[in-house]
Amino acid sequence: MQADSIIFFFIIPLFGSFFAFLEKIRPNIKSAKPAIIVVYAGCFFLLAMFSPAILRGSSYERYIGNWNGIVGICQTLDGLAWIGLTVMYVVSGLAICFAFAEKRYDGTFYFFFLILLTGMAGVLLASDLFNLFVCMEIVGICSYILISYSRKEQALWASFKYMVLSTLGISLFLVGVFVIYKNTGTLFTGELSEYFYRSGHHSMETSLALACIVTGIGIRTAFIPFHTWLPEAHSNAPHPVSAILSGVIIKVSFLALWRIIVLWDLGNVKTFLLWSGVFTALFGVFMALNQTECKLLLAWHTVSQMGYIMAGFGAWTVLSMSGSLYHVISHALFKSLLFLSVGTVILSTGKSSIKEISGLARSMPFVSGVFLVGALSISGIPPFNGYISKKIILSGIKGFPVAYWLLWAVSAGTVASFTKLSSVFRGKASPDGEFSDNSYQGRNFLSGKISMLVLASLCLVSGLFGPFLLKNVIVSIIDLQTVSIPDIWKASSLLDSGITVLLGMMLYLVITSGWGEKIQLTVSRIKLSLDRALVLVLCGLLVLCGFIHFF
What we know:
Blueprint: H1 8-25, H2 32-55, E1 60-64, E2 73-77, H3 79-102, H4 107-125, H5 129-147, H6 153-184, H7 189-199, H8 204-221, H9 230-236, H10 239-264, H11 267-289, H12 294-315, H13 318-349, H14 365-378, H15 385-396, H16 401-421, H17 446-464, H18 466-477, H19 491-511, H20 514-524, H21 530-550
Antiparallel strand pairs: 1-2
């Protein structure tokens, strides 16, 4: 396969967006959906063509317009980018099938969705900082618009908050790029790795520049203290957009951060990410336990699960990094499944509060079944994929006992919160749970059901074959050292999961008691204003700068 073909990952969805726009200006020309189908067919064909060489450890590099040197725009397709593109196309493709089934979206929605695909591909392939900046801006702008697509007040506010925080982050990122370019004369990440290796201890100026770059990407990745926009944005976006935001967009940002930290060997940033990840996981699950809105609970669990990913990456062992990358894949699958299944409940009942819906298992057996798969996966129950990735992460951070036990406690909290959310399907059907629109149960919703069924199947398959995929595919194509995968199917590991479930059930009884209900009411009233969220970002920037410079 020629390296020149890399650019088609960017061009194909961009070209398809013109046909979606055509439907916007000429509604009688139904060209958006066929364009999306063609786009995905072309992109999956490209992935398949590059796959044999990528699986052998090869990589491809392409300079746009053949402009080499400091003025060139370089794109690189390696194992990390290939994994990111595969996850992106699979999850976003299934989410857009759900959108087709909803029949609520016009050419505008599909236009910005295809531009979003273009930007995400650009982020994953970018090998220079300015190109990364441009593509991140494309992703950000499209995300703001898609979050606020319903034009409801809460969605507009969530989009605005994300826009303000994201604009601050990307401005800091651009400041960092300027300082680095001023000192080095290049923006290529590969060449910069040599500079940071030679320079050793960083000056305060360089430390601040690095902190700005990590903060800019960190806001899009949503770990503490840069997470404040996520719960409102993910919970108020249209259901397929929530699935893409949680399953894909924040993972794309994380993989960009992964590439930079690995290439530049930023050891102090790794330490920051380890402990930030641990407390992100802990705080996220605590907030999730106190939510009564279905999608808000899921949104806080996105924060929590990103904590697992960041902690595994920050621990910097081959095993923990392997688990972190596998959890990127696992989380993309089970969290998009959860958002789509809960979204179907909201579409069918017109309700979003856990307290207003119950007993839907009889009337919605398919949705309750796929939700159960997602809930078991995120809770780390065998044989689903969340069990594999979490076990690998925990095995890899045993050298950090405090982090290990805190993440283990988070697993119990996850079981408790999804036991709470499952009350939507358990028990006796409530009068408020009657269907407001039966079309989401019928044949007209077939593509939505197929998308959820495929996601549920992938959660199971990637769990059953997880150790094989880790050892023979994931580790090899991202150029990690040979890793010895522990026997996660042994009796002691399964018993450990059983104990986690037991503790989670006990915690569920606590939070549903009278005392627990009072705590939930108090916590649910806590709102972080936009100005305080901005201050929190700047405080995180200073702490990160201190980590880089002094430790």
